């Protein structure tokens, strides 16, 4: 299969390496980056020093900075079977617009809500952006618990490929399933995307909790009640409850909320150490989608009448309206409720 990965951050690079290393499939993989200097460096040194240091490129991985519309032109004999969009959520709309004319199957990897395009408009999940930009595309999303460094190193990982189209799910499995990477299929795109977006916000909360040394009980409570609020929002957006027991729900929440490789968790830890949000984001050097999605998650939930107290506390913290101890007090000071999602 011929695969192009658009966006050479940590995750795009890791998945491109994993697919190119899969000898059973013998894929030809192209990694596209917008920075021509970075492409030159990656082509010469066969490693992405900036975003994924120490992970060498297999021979079947090529890097390019050529014009995307030319690369994807159907008349071009080099065109691809699968286009993977590996930008952060902020780049999804513009990249979908660039690939809208392709005949290829498309999938994105980003986990978050797009920021509202104008005040009062709802911020959108990836499949909603697709509906507004290129509804005709055969497309889907790849998500699940997966730190880029571990996938690049070939450590066992399981992902989920979600699409309403069976052919898209099948192609994504064929592209990425390997002895080191299991890819499950799921039709519930809304559920998979809500899980991937909301777990980032919740990981900021658990990072803060652990940074403040509130204890293991507090972290378990945050994860469990976070799962409940994630599920509530998902159901209100048309998702299936059982999806949140899967890889993109519970799986990614546990990984991101507890794994010290998580950028979102690191933001919470930095805020607990009294750093400003600007400092926390700057020292990451990578995107932490929860910082940009939290407000939108809260707005979508509020519009739908879905209570999301942990998300609300994270928004207060990120907006500078709450100090860390006030966020904890706001959560713990609420009256008793039934344990339902
Ligand atoms: N890193 C991981 O372990 C991981 C795992 C699963 C999913 N994700 C998700 O994948 C997405 C990308 O994460 P990442 O870790 O690769 O981020 P990163 O911060 O490591 O890199 C982001 C990359 O995207 C590029 N980029 C930004 N805007 C772009 C645009 N408009 N067009 C083209 N390229 C653009 C940047 O130049 C950079 O190369 C995020 O939504 C993240 O939540 C990351
Ligand atoms: O480092 P984070 O917090 O962006 O999380 C990375 C992946 O989404 C984990 O599945």
TrEMBL record:
Sn-glycerol 3-phosphate binds at residues 111, 144, 146, 199, 252, 262-264. GO terms for molecular function: glycerol-3-phosphate dehydrogenase [NAD(P)+] activity. It catalyses: sn-glycerol 3-phosphate + NADP(+) = dihydroxyacetone phosphate + NADPH + H(+); sn-glycerol 3-phosphate + NAD(+) = dihydroxyacetone phosphate + NADH + H(+). NADPH binds at residues 11, 34, 51, 111, 148, 263, 287, 289. Residues 188-328 form the Glycerol-3-phosphate dehydrogenase NAD-dependent C-terminal domain. Pathway: Membrane lipid metabolism; glycerophospholipid metabolism. Its EC number is 1.1.1.94. It is found in: Cytoplasm. Keywords: Cytoplasm, Lipid biosynthesis, Lipid metabolism, NAD, NADP, Nucleotide-binding, Oxidoreductase, Phospholipid biosynthesis, Phospholipid metabolism. Pfam families: NAD_Gly3P_dh_C, NAD_Gly3P_dh_N. It comes from the Bacteria. The active site is at 199 (proton acceptor). Gene3D superfamilies: N-(1-d-carboxylethyl)-l-norvaline Dehydrogenase, domain 2, NAD(P)-binding Rossmann-like Domain. SUPFAM superfamilies: 6-phosphogluconate dehydrogenase C-terminal domain-like, NAD(P)-binding Rossmann-fold domains. PROSITE patterns: NAD_G3PDH. Residues 2-167 form the Glycerol-3-phosphate dehydrogenase NAD-dependent N-terminal domain. Belongs to the NAD-dependent glycerol-3-phosphate dehydrogenase family. Catalyzes the reduction of the glycolytic intermediate dihydroxyacetone phosphate (DHAP) to sn-glycerol 3-phosphate (G3P), the key precursor for phospholipid synthesis. This is Glycerol-3-phosphate dehydrogenase [NAD(P)+]. It comes from Rhodoferax potami.
């Amino acid at each position: 299969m011929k695969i192009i990965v658009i966006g050479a951050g940590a995750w795009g690079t890791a998945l491109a390496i994993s697919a190119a290393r899969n000898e059973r499939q013998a894929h030809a993989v192209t990694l596209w980056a917008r920075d021509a200097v970075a492409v030159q460096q990656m082509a010469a040194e066969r490693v992405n020093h900036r975003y994924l240091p120490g992970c060498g490129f297999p021979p079947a991985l090529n890097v390019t900075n050529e014009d995307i519309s030319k690369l994807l032109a159907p008349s071009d004999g080099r065109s691809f079977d699968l286009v993977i969009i590996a930008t952060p959520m902020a780049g999804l709309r513009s990249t979908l617009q660039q690939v809208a004319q392709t005949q290829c199957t498309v999938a994105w990897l980003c986990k978050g809500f797009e920021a509202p395009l104008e005040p009062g408009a709802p911020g959108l999940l990836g499949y909603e952006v697709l509906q507004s930009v290129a509804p005709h595309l055969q497309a889907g999303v790849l998500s699940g618990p997966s730190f880029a460094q571990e996938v690049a190193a070939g450590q066992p990982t399981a992902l989920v490929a979600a699409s309403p189209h069976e052919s898209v799910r099948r192609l994504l499995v064929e592209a990425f399933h390997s002895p080191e990477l299991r890819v499950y299929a799921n039709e519930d795109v809304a559920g998979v995307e809500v899980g991937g977006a909301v777990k980032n916000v919740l990981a900021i909360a658990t990072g803060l909790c652990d940074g403040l040394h509130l204890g293991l009980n507090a972290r378990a409570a945050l994860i469990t009640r976070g799962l409940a609020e994630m599920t509530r929002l998902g159901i209100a957006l048309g998702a299936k409850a059982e999806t949140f027991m899967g890889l993109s729900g519970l799986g990614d929440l546990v990984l991101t909320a507890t794994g010290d490789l998580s950028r979102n968790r690191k933001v919470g830890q930095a805020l607990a150490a009294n750093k400003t949000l600007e400092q926390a984001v700057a020292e990451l050097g990578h995107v932490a989608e929860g910082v940009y999605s939290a407000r939108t998650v809260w707005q979508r939930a509020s519009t739908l009448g879905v209570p999301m107290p942990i998300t609300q506390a994270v928004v207060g913290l990120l907006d500078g309206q709450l100090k860390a101890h006030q966020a904890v007090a706001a959560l713990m000071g609420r009256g008793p409720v039934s344990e339902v999602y």
